[in-house]
Amino acid sequence: MDHQALALEMRGLREQVTGITDTAVAAADGLLIAADTADSIDPEGLAALAAAGLGLARRTAGATARGALRRTVTYGSHGCAAFYAVGDTALMVVLGDEGMDVDHLHRATQPTLNRIGSILTDKATEKAPEGV
Amino acid sequence: MCEAAGGVMSGHEHLAQALAACGRDGFTGELRITGTPGGTFHFGDGRVVAVESPGAPGPEALLLRSGRVSGEQWAELVRESGGSRWPATALIAHGYAGAAQLRVVCALALHDAAFAMAAGRVEDCERRATAEPFAQVPLGEPPLRLLQDAIRRLTALAALPHPVHPDRERPVPSGTDNGSGALRRELLTHADGRSTARDLAFRVGRGVYTVTVEVARMLEEGLLVCAGPATPIAVRSLPDGDELRPRTPTPVEQLPSPTRTDLPRRKPGSFFRLRNGMPK
């Protein structure tokens, strides 16, 4: 896995979509891989919540015949938290303030998810030092 | 040192032409601006009656972040107003704000959103006609006057000794001076090196122009400094020797098919026996 490429994707998304405040990438079981979060956020807990939230949403989609799960978004009065599945093995969390255009986020996220999926499954790339 | 705000922002001419055309045509509907931060001008008979942009807090964010209305109260007001995006009547009826105060908040937010879009990058402008405009101010602003006001603000910002862009510099506090004034104290509390002036404006519930000017002044006075390179994102090695395991799909539990069963049949006299303890 190319650590630098993953960090660049996460930072690039934050710069691309106005209003993104934090991002994180975790394994599908909730184990944190990378976090670009403010000090007020516990990234480990956030990753675990995202895994549980996506799992519940996936089961809900299945039980109600809603097809493949695309994402879950939690809306609050001060912003929203979006959880995206990255293939079958990982997930991405995006937090945004109330100004973030969520439709724009969903459009901007799709190519990022594909690239992050490739980065996570790429075994050929030599590891960069941690903390890129 | 922070990078100085650039001169004329990109896309001004394109935006000015589109706004002028909407005014000339007496357009009613939305003028959607794609770009960064982008947004929407809402027109009613050729006048701008609301502006929304991810680059500036709207009236709802200004009211909620200032603590004037709580999130729960807002949800109740929206329900009471039949799902309205802007429950102005209910806000006044419940005493959360006066009619004049709301007009001021809406006018400020309208000018602020126009400023944020003018300060950003404009890629395209697309009209979408609607029967009823989303209006937050009763009379509306002539579109070109609105844009001129935004350009005047940009010029004033660029003329400051330490100009900043609403969506670029990410300052951190410097020194021990806590600053004077509520806004300065709040900005010092929330400036964490991750937030731009735009982010701080949302955080403290103030206009993005006001916050950008204040950040520029605080940078000049040395209360804030621009953060160095962004803190690196710590990336951990993958579990299980650099390989992610696919999620184990949980089989969806099928709900048991409803089988038709007869409801329990009431036995005549059961209640009477229960009350009076009569033998069966």
From TrEMBL, chain A:
- Taxonomy, superkingdom: Bacteria
Which SUPFAM superfamilies does the entry mention? Answer: Roadblock/LC7 domain (SSF103196)
| InterPro entries assigned | Roadblock/LAMTOR2_dom (IPR004942)
- In this chain the Roadblock/LAMTOR2 domain maps to 7-96
Q: What is this protein called?
A: Dynein regulation protein LC7
Question: In which organism is this protein found?
Answer: Streptomyces canus
From TrEMBL, chain B:
Organism, as annotated: Streptomyces canus
**Region (Disordered) location:** 235-280
Protein name as it appears in the record = MarR family transcriptional regulator
